[in-house]
């Protein structure tokens, strides 16, 4: 199995107990052998290779965060879950996002928002990757303001709900077996969650094309026209955006771990290249300015590791708040942006060629920087927490 990462300069992985570290190393080895060889070709084509589902199924770690629904642990620690998110993204950010949308946003929505019957109905097949999930919140005219400006509506009609509206940027949306759709109840104005199953009349999903990031992810534009969903498919423990915010709080920390994975992957590529690439008769790793870029990158990575390890501890202790995940998302994604730029710079002209991998990390970083709350929105969340004053418009 692969040894500890060069980017883990302070040895944070050693904080995992032996059984969890074994799983992390298993994932690292598997992803390098089975997933990495697929991604450049898929990224260039802008297509999601369906064999990736089988690869992640073979890896066998879906659902381990949810007690009673995943093997081989009863429920993995928050630290292992975060490190696995880092590991998937260190291999490839956009294929990892397929997994994160399914295993994080979709599964956690059901785990947190569904009653026991709903959990038992959907989560086992999702943990086995026999049923693929998606999460539909962002709208064509609403991203950061979706909490107060959600336009998709839900109207009760006997034992069913009628959904109308549109969603955008929905990862896995073109092929998911079920989509968690968030809509505002016309009767009480509360946001509610609905599980819309594949093939439901009135539900259409169209692939968004011509992306320059996350090209493997099949993001979709979704339209809902009088979509009838049974009351049994309404997430029973969701009644307002406060409940939704709890889901986003947890998944936002996962995005910060993904950002760590992206800068780790880019840094490792740059470090290896600097040792091999020669100019003026010697490896460029011997040049002071190249070492400066590498050390600044390692500093960003190490600082982000420390923040995220403590974030996982706050989650384990049950004292995790919105501002904790928001600060991590804003800070780590900003540092990621710096690292991928410095790493690409070390490659010179080769840094824009997909064959060297770093261009993929450089491009995909922009998507991670933007979703799950922009830096500005997460800054305002933290700003309100530390000053007691809201600066939201």
Please specify the SSE layout and strand pairing.
Layout: H1 18-45, H2 51-59, H3 78-91, H4 93-113, H5 116-127, E1 133-136, H6 146-149, E2 153-157, E3 160-170, E4 178-185, E5 191-197, E6 203-207, E7 220-230, H7 241-276, E8 278-279, E9 282-283, H8 288-317, H9 322-346, H10 358-370, H11 375-387
Parallel strand pairs: 1-4, 2-4
Antiparallel strand pairs: 2-3, 3-7, 4-5, 6-7, 8-9
**What gyration radius follows from the Cα positions, in whole Å?**
21 Å
By CATH's scheme, which homologous superfamily of the largest domain applies? Butyryl-CoA Dehydrogenase, subunit A, domain 3
Structural class by sheet pairing and helices: alpha+beta
Q: Which oligomerization state do the chains in this entry correspond to?
A: single chain
Number of helices: 11
Provide the CATH topology of the largest domain: Butyryl-CoA Dehydrogenase, subunit A, domain 3
Low confidence ranges: none
Please give the share of residues in helix: 40-55%
**What proportion of the residues form beta strands (DSSP E)?**
5-15%
The CATH class of the largest domain turns out to be: Mainly Alpha
List SSEs in N-to-C order: HHHHHEHEEEEEEHEEHHHH
Report how far apart the termini are: 51 Å
**Overall pLDDT:** 92
Keywords: FAD, Flavoprotein, Oxidoreductase
Pfam families: Acyl-CoA_dh_1, Acyl-CoA_dh_M, Acyl-CoA_dh_N
Protein name: Acyl-CoA dehydrogenase family protein
Organism: Streptomyces bugieae
In a nutshell, what does this entry contain?
This protein has helices spanning about 20-45, 50-60, 80-90, 95-115, 115-125, 145-150, 240-275, 290-315, 320-345, 360-370, 375-385; strands spanning about 135, 155, 160-170, 180-185, 190-195, 205, 220-230, 280, 280-285. The protein is α+β, with helices and mostly antiparallel strands.
